[in-house]
């Protein structure tokens, strides 16, 4: 008979907060590098930024700090394409 497994919640939390953080940061940087903004939007490359933060785990966001960024995402899906090129699956929130 198999022995019951006991989950070390504190240990799992440490992994999610700290150990996985480097992988999350690297993936966010890759998404930012993959952003290809069509010339029609006149968005400079330095408008794409990566912000690291922590909730109950390490996290990062890729932002485009420009007025035309929302239109570029809605029309051309520039962040969605960049995330897909990095191997991420993007789904809508509901």
Summarize the structure.
The chain has 94 residues and is an alpha+beta fold.
Structure notes:
The longest helix has 14 residues, at 21-34. The protein is built from four helices and two strands. It has one domain (10-85). A two-stranded antiparallel sheet has the order 1-2. It has 94 residues and is of the alpha+beta class. β1 (48-54) and β2 form a beta hairpin. Helix content is 44%, strand content 15%.
Report the major sheet.
2 strands, antiparallel
**Rough outline:** elongated
| Structural domains: how many | 1
Give the uncertain stretches in residue-range form: none
- As an assembly, this protein is single chain
Sketch the topology as an H/E string, one letter per element: HHEEHH
Mean pLDDT: 89
Radius of gyration: 17 Å
Beta content comes to: 5-15%
State the main characteristics.
94 residues; alpha+beta; two-stranded antiparallel sheet
Indicate the topology:
Layout: H1 9-19, H2 21-34, E1 48-54, E2 58-64, H3 69-76, H4 78-85
Antiparallel strand pairs: 1-2
Helix pairs in contact: 2-4, 3-4
């Amino acid at each position: 008979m198999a022995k019951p497994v006991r989950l070390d919640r504190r240990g799992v939390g440490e992994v999610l907060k700290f150990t996985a953080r480097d992988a999350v940061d690297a993936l966010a940087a890759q998404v930012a590098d993959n952003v290809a903004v069509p010339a029609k939007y006149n968005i400079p490359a330095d408008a794409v930024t990566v912000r690291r933060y922590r909730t109950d785990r390490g996290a990062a966001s890729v932002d485009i700090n420009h007025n035309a960024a929302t239109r570029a995402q809605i029309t051309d899906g520039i962040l969605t394409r960049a995330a897909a090129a990095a191997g991420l699956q993007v789904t809508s929130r509901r």
